[in-house]
Design a protein that fits this description.
Elements (H helix, E strand, L loop, with lengths): L1 E12 L7 H4 L1 E11 L15 H12 L6 H15 L3 E10 L11 E8 L2
Antiparallel strand pairs: 1-2, 2-3, 3-4
Helix pairs in contact: 2-3
Protein name: 7,8-dihydroneopterin aldolase
GO molecular function, one term: dihydroneopterin aldolase activity
Function: Catalyzes the conversion of 7,8-dihydroneopterin to 6-hydroxymethyl-7,8-dihydropterin.
């Protein structure tokens, strides 16, 4: 089993339900772990592995699409990665809004989804 980690990816996006979020935007942090089986234990070529650059491009493209709910974004990213890499067995993703529009709040808010594939 191999796990590809992409952590602390920062994107500016226009996701959210609160008034003005679609105009001002916010910074978001994405953390992603993709577990998979390597076919016949071949580590000699990217064709046998989950390419973290391709995974990053999937995340980047999806984070650029304005969406009200972080859960919808995370679910979509999971689906796109699994579609591209059929040998993936588990994907865990967290998306954090770094400057939540909550009065007197200091911190970040976010969601996580953990999906296991048979």
């Amino acid at each position: 089993m191999v796990t590809v980690h992409l952590h602390q990816l920062i994107f500016h996006g226009f996701h959210g339900l609160y008034p003005g979020e679609e105009i001002i935007g916010n910074d978001f942090e994405v953390n992603l772990d993709v577990e998979y089986h390597v076919k016949k234990d071949k580590y000699d070529s990217l064709k046998h592995l989950v390419n973290y650059e391709e995974v990053y491009e999937i995340v980047k493209a999806r984070m650029a699409i304005n969406t009200p709910l972080l859960e919808e974004i995370a679910d979509s990213i999971i689906g796109k990665i699994h579609h591209r890499f059929s040998n993936v067995t588990r994907i865990t993703i967290s998306i954090y809004k770094l400057n939540a529009p909550i009065p007197h709040f200091n911190g970040k808010v976010g969601i996580s989804i953990d999906r296991i594939f048979d």
